[in-house]
Amino acid sequence: MQEVLTIEHFRPLKDKPFCLELEGVGKVELILSEVTDLGPRPGVGDSGRDRTFSLIFRGGLLGPEKNLYLTQRTYKLEQEDLGSLDIFLVPIGPDKIGMRYEAIFN
Length: 106
Known about the structure:
Elements: H1 7-10, E1 17-22, E2 26-40, E3 51-59, E4 61-62, E5 68-69, E6 73-79, E7 83-94, E8 99-105
């Protein structure tokens, strides 16, 4: 996808799967569980393209015991509606459902 991504690209994808291929592991599925508007970027206008937002993904527990997780880095995520996206993910810790990962768009 070549255009600038906005929060509006992701809102309809809440609870939808995003997939990535991980060498030595294979296909890993992450579910987009939260889409949060963080407000306008400091020092710019308030158009949709100038808003900061956060995405929280769940899943990505790896290994036979499912106790390993993705590390902080850029991953190529595939999504049915958006296609292929390079997104920087940061593990922010588990909850009752599984490991959570955050991506911030400025």
